[in-house]
Amino acid sequence: RVPTVSFTLEGHHPETLAKGFAKDNIFVWSGHNYAIEPVARMGLMDKGGVLRVGLAHYNSAEEVGALLSSLTRQLRNS
User: Fold this and answer.
1) What is the DSSP letter of 14?
2) pTM summary value
3) Is residue 1 very low, low, confident or very high in pLDDT (cuts 50, 70, 90)?
4) Coil, strand or helix: which one is 36?
5) 59 close to 28: Cβ distance less than 8 angstroms
6) For 8-67, what is each residue's pLDDT tens digit?
7) What's the half-sphere exposure (Cβ side, CA atoms, 13 Å) at 32?
8) d(C-alpha 64, C-alpha 14), whole Å
């Protein structure tokens, strides 16, 4: 199995963030990610769900840094 991290950022739609990551060649998922019941119970379904990032032992420190840099750029530009 691959570890995943799902999160939301208040004021930022998950799909918009996912598209911003894609522009930096970082591919994540947005939506309910087949966790329909938990996302619905958290009241996130109408807010676009969550942003899901897959991180595993084969991701390098540079790749994690690129993810964080991309997120920082997106937050600054919003």
Assistant:
1) H
2) 0.88
3) low
4) helix
5) no
6) 999 999 999 999 999 999 999 999 999 999 999 999 999 999 999 998 888 899 999 999
7) 13
8) 19
Q: What are the strands, taking DSSP E only, across 1-78?
A: 4-7, 29-31, 50-54
Cα atoms found within 13 Å of the Cα of residue 69, Cβ hemisphere only = 10
Per-residue burial over 27-59, b = 16 or more CB atoms within 10 Å of its CB, e = otherwise? ebbbbbbebeeebeeeebeeebbbbbbeeeeee
- What is the spatial distance between Cα 65 and Cα 48, in angstroms, rounded to a whole number? 25
Both tokens assigned to 76: 């600054």
DSSP letter assigned to residue 73: H
pLDDT value for 2 = 65
- Please name the amino acid found at residue 25: N
Q: Contact 4/29 with Cβ under 8 angstroms?
A: no
